[in-house]
Amino acid sequence: MIADNDAGGVITYAQTGAMYGIGFFIPFLLLMIPVAYIVQEMTVRLGAVTHRGHAEMIWGRYGAFWGVFSLLDLTIANILTLVTEFIGIRIGMSIFSVPPYLSVPIAWVFVASIMIFPHYNTWERVALWIAAGNIVFVPLAIAAHPDWSQVVAAVGSWHIPIGTALV
Questions:
Q1: Residue 58's closest CA among 50, 66, 46?
Q2: I need a labelling partner for 157 at 20 to 30 A (CA). Which of 58, 105, 137, 148 fits?
Q3: Tens-place pLDDT, residues 16-65
Q4: Do 71 and 32 touch, CB atoms closer than 8 A?
């Protein structure tokens, strides 16, 4: 459920908050928590009941075209997500004066090593520790010194923007 707490997701959240304000972002965030939970719960239950994976169920129910389409779509989305991850690594490491020609290859070797060498159970434990690291967003949000009265008011009155303004 923390899949969108990556470089691309955080940048998108920041842009959405800057564009539409806290009156849209906070209530939307609160609504997405149960949606993310329900979608993942349904996926796990479907897999547990049918003993089939996501792609296998699409392939069996809707045919080869939609099965291939689903796999290609997922592959492209994952590649683009990795691109945003490496952009985030490059930008993040530049804060510490690490040049991109060092930070990106080292990060690539790290990611490749994690995917190739450890057993699934080991990687799962490492991923859970990384997920626990997302608690850092709480002090970061507090360090941003938000106007807490606006935060409370935003939860009570959801402002849905109509259209977008070109800047």
A1: 66
A2: 137
A3: 778 877 777 778 778 888 888 898 888 889 889 999 888 888 889 999 99
A4: no
CA 150 to chain centre: 26
Nearest to 162 by CA among 10, 24, 3: 24
Q: Which two tokens stand for residue 15?
A: 């842009």
CA atoms within 13 A on the CB side of 103: 16
Token code pair at residue 26: 């906070």
SS (HEC) of the chain: CCCCCCHHHHHHHHHHHHHHCHHHHHHHHHHHHHHHHHHHHHHHHHHHHHCCCHHHHHHHHHCHHHHHHHHHHHHHHHHHHHHHHHHHHHHHHHHCCCCHHHHHHHHHHHHHHHHHCCCHHHHHHHHHHHHHHHHHHHHHHHHCCCCHHHHHHHHHCCCCCCCCCCC
Cα-flanking dihedrals φ and ψ of residue 21, to 5°? 85, 170
> What's the token pair of residue 92?
């993040």
d(CA 17, CA 102): 32
